Amino acid sequence: TYATRPRYLHLATTANGLSEGLARMREGEQGIMLLPSIYAFGREGAGNGTIPPNSPVRLDVTLRRTRTEDQ
To answer: 58 by DSSP, 3-state: which?
Structure first.
């Protein structure tokens, strides 16, 4: 449990599996994303060791709002 406050993410800068999952969601929808390491952070891991290399990732997601780059 790291982020309980809203986060603004640019889909091009997120893990492949996260951007793919978010693109399929509608505003207001909730879901659990289970990402195998190849769709998460792979061999590199993330967060200065917070997510170790080759680790699967579980994300509890609520898509509150979407916006385009020009908004």
So the answer is: strand
pTM score, whole prediction = 0.69
Q: Contact at 8 Å (CB) between 53 and 42?
A: yes
Tokens linked to 65: 């709002």
Q: How far is the C-alpha of 42 from the C-alpha of 55, rounded, in Å?
A: 7
Determine phi and psi for 34, rounding to 5 degrees: -110, 105
In order of 13, 20, 61, 63, the CA distances from 27 in angstroms are 20, 15, 11, 5
Separation of alpha carbons 19 and 9, rounded Å = 9
pLDDT tens profile 18-40: 888 888 899 999 999 999 999 88
CA distance 26 to 50: 29
Residues 40 and 15 sit within 8 Å (Cβ to Cβ): yes
